[in-house]
Each structure stands twice: as C-alpha cells, then as structure tokens.
Amino acid sequence: MKQIALLSFFFSLNLLAMTRQPLVSGKLYIPDGYDSNDLVEVTLIGSLPDSCHRNPTYEITREGKTFVIALFAYYVPEERGCRKVSIPYQETINLGLLAKGSYKIQLRGTKVISESAIRIAESRSSLQDDFKYGNVMNVIENDYSRTIELVGTNPSACLVFEKLDSEIQQDIIILRPHFREEGVCKDEPTEFSLRYDVPHLPTHARGLLIHIRVMGGRSLSYLFKSKI
C-alpha cells in the first residue's frame, strides 16, 4: 500500500508540474481545389523542440472569414533534464463545409507563424463530390524508389477504377483517384491498390505533402520524405 501511495504522490506532482505551452513553429499545407460541398481539410506538420514537450494539440477560432489555429504542447519536466531531440508530428485539421469565397488561415504559436489564403469555389452539384473518388485508406511508401501505393476498400464491387489525376501545387501533390459505376451496385466491400510515381521537384526534394481526395468529400494526407 505504501508503494501505491508513493507512486500516486509522484504522479500527482508530475501532473501539477505539467503546463500547456504555445509552440514556436509549424507549417500548414493548404491544397487548392475545394468547393462548397467539400469538407475543407488542411495539414499541420511540425516538430516538438525537446523530450519535455509532449502531446501537441491545437485550438481553432474563427473571426469572420479568418481561421486562427493556435498551437500548443504539454510541457512535462524530466528529472534528468530535457533531451534536445526533435519529435515530428502531423495533424489533419477539418475546417468543415465552407461557403463560396476567400478565407484566411492564420497559424499562431508564441507569435503569428504564418498566414495563408484559401479560395472555395461554388459546387457544380448539390451532391458531395462532383466525381466518384476511391475510398483510399492508407499510403505505403517504398524506401528504394519514389513509387507510393494507395490502398483502400470501396463499399461496392461496382466501382471500377478509371484514372488517377495528379496536380502539383508548390510543395503539395494532389491525387484524385477516379472510379466509375459499372453494373449493379451491391454492398460488397472491394479492396484496391493504385501506384503513383512521385516526380522530382527541384525545390522540394523532401517534405512533399501527398494530398489524396477520397470518398465522401474527405481527404487523406501523407508526408513524402523519400531520399531518392
């Protein structure tokens, strides 16, 4: 019982010492091409400054047509001192459905880190997604080439792969896996796998964000860091 009480005491002290602190850096990847029927998602990538900073998190506030994303991490002091190791993190931030227009997205830590703009187009259809995208669920990277594999499961066997569109936007590559309906659609989950060769971009050899449009107006983001 004494050991349990002692552990509880030290745990309580650790919680008391833990504080939430704003971060000083981070990068937002904001793809173009959203319309008013899409769930607007942006990707936040950064790294924690040392081993004492843990559990990165964020808060979103909206001020008119400006979204403010505030970055935080929990600071937990270590008895042996903070180790200077860079711990990467990645977050997908959902801004929801937005009406047609231009918006600003501001990233804040201890100060304003960056401010970017995003434009939302009017949807051409009352349905979510003007096209049928595959339900991509994961990205597999080959360590010995620049080929990635998009894997997923569609809810019906009647969805047949048609083409994989790609669009390069600075340090983001947008992939749109198009499927079409063929035959009678029944509830029959069907797995698929698509390959894509990531091109060399001289100014962004590493740290490219692969942004994949998927079924239901959603997206999947993957940070491509191949050394090849």
Share in helix: under 10%
The number of E-state strands comes to: 15
Basic shape: globular
Major pleated sheet: 5 strands, mixed
Give the strand content: over 45%
Low-confidence stretches: 4-13
| Straight-line N-to-C gap | 57 Å
Number of helices: 1
Q: Secondary-structure element sequence?
A: HEEEEEEEEEEEEEEE
Mean of the pLDDT scores? Answer: 87
Computed over alpha carbons, the radius of gyration is 21 Å
Overall structural class, as computed from helix and strand content, comes to: mainly beta
Which short descriptors sum up this protein?
228 residues, five-stranded mixed β-sheet, single chain
Q: What is the strand and helix layout of this fold?
A:
Layout: H1 2-17, E1 19-22, E2 27-29, E3 39-48, E4 53-63, E5 66-75, E6 87-97, E7 101-108, E8 112-120, E9 136-141, E10 147-156, E11 159-169, E12 172-181, E13 187-197, E14 208-214, E15 218-224
Write structural notes for this entry:
The protein is mainly beta and 228 residues long. It is 7% helix and 56% strand. The protein is built from 1 helix and 15 strands; from the N terminus they run αβββββββββββββββ. The strands form 4 sheets. Strands 1, 4, 5, 7 and 8 form a 5-stranded mixed β-sheet that branches. A 4-stranded mixed β-sheet has the order 11-12-14-15, with no helix packed on it. The chain has a 3-stranded antiparallel β-sheet with strand order 2-3-6, with no helix packed on it. A hairpin with a 5-residue loop joins β9 (136-141) and β10. The longest helix is centred in the N-terminal third of the chain and has 16 residues, at 2-17. It starts with a helix and ends with a strand. 20% of the residues are buried. Mean pLDDT is 87; it is low at 4-13.
